[in-house]
Amino acid sequence: MKRYQQFEPVLISDFSVSQWEHPEHNHNHYELILIRKGSGKHIVNGNPISYESGMVFLLGPEDCHHFETGEETHFTYIKFTDAYLYRKTGDHQKVIHDLEYLIKSRETHQTGFKLPDDELHTVRLIFNVIVALKDHILYNQDLIWYQLLTLSRILKRNMPELKTSGTQVRNLQAIFCYIHKNIYEPDLLRTRVMANHFNLAADYFGNYFKRNTGTTLRNYIHQYRNTLISHRMTSGKTSLKEIAAEFGLTDASHLMKIIQKK
């Protein structure tokens, strides 16, 4: 499978094609895609999804995909790397959390977003601003960044809520999304609290997760949190004290103990 490598922190593409020319591929970056017009199939990780004008897709480095255009399609791409995602911290933490949750929530990657008319109108306008900035990306990186954060907030509030109905209690995706959404709130990730949320006994909940994932709930939470912490540390823009506070930890020493724990 072909893998595209992007070394620039952010790139913007805006183009129309009658026939898609790229083979099935993945990449080392994230892609936020707006279908401005047209229809066809978007094949994501082997799953065909019918697309139409106004749909939005978010893909991560682990996703393989390609398009099959049914009619001429106008695409706008925002392609960004981890370096761009974590370029700012501090007051931007909450919106970075929104992007992290969207990126990790697999159901958004698979099916895309079908936005209500008022939200779609706003999203189209934001994409128009981004396209207008694309010829001078280095100069406009901050402006593009703020548009991206605004898009993430709109997309997050349009995600389907994960209910704890009988048909979804055993849906691992719902459990994963709960973890990703609450990774900054340690008290909400206790087995007893999570089991209660999904209307299950604590012992059954832990056993169910391990049986279906091959790892313990505690280990999954630990590994996912460490991945996010590693991104913060690699960016060099956040102190250990600030990272600890962001993840609800006592102090920097508590943070280091968690990182070093196997």
Automatic annotation (TrEMBL):
Q: Does the keyword Isomerase apply?
A: no
Tree of life domain: Bacteria
Q: Where is the HTH araC/xylS-type domain?
A: 173-262
* One MF term in the entry's GO annotations: DNA-binding transcription factor activity
Question: Any idea which UniProt keywords this protein has?
Answer: DNA-binding
An example of a Pfam family matching this protein is AraC_binding
**Which stretches are annotated as coiled coil?**
none
Q: Which SUPFAM superfamilies match?
A: Regulatory protein AraC
What name does UniProt use for this protein? HTH araC/xylS-type domain-containing protein
